[in-house]
User: Fold CAP-Gly domain-containing protein from Pycnoporus cinnabarinus.
Amino acid sequence: MMYSTVNVFVVSPDTRSERRFDLGLTVGQLKVRIAVFSEVPVRLDLNGAKRGQNKLELITGIPVQNQEISVLPSEDATQALCVLADDDKKLGFYGIHDWQVLKVNDLNPATSFTGQLSDTSQVDKFELSEAEYAQRQDTVLAYKQRHKIGRFADRSSEEPQEPPHVDIPIGARCEVESAEKDFRKRGTVRYVGPTEFAKGIWVGIEYDEPIGKNDGSVKGKRYFECQPNFGVFVKPERVKVGDYPVEEINFDDEEM
Assistant:
């Protein structure tokens, strides 16, 4: 006699799988299928004989005598449609349809491994101290060190460096190096430090005469106060600090 088949989901505390069963199987034969573990592609026929069709892969870890199989309309259903309570009844008797769920409960979990496959509370943990971890060569830390990744990367020459110390006090009298012979540019130091218009340390000077380029500000950023054309910014190596009195500069009429 030929029986039709049904596709169902079989779930247990540790497993979930999709399987096809003959509706002519009895509940007792179904339990054997669910409990058996085999890597050989065999299948039991209705009388328990072998025939090569499908793998027996439904592994629940629940012994046959402990199984209680409920039929649910879906996996998120909370109420069973029925319980396969009679081992002699065929699956077709219970009206099982495609894509319903056979939920296998363990009536005596103390005698099986049910639930232990997903219980990690008793699993020994492998732990290392920070010192032991740092000494290992098979870790992410060791990989980063070997390949100079992240905080182990080489410092770039373009990284910001501490500004050099410049011994030019604010308020000191000074003279600025000039390319013109016998022309001395004297003034007072008003600012020493970094600027936004160029890298490095700059010295802001208020000249004694209007021979400068600004009023202590550059591109809208003010560094010190002075009259227009009295201010200038120069590199520290062009500045000489000392006792430089104010000198009057006489401009010829042709240069005015």
Observations:
- Helices lie at 27-35, 130-135, 140-147.
- The two ends are 124 Å apart (CA to CA).
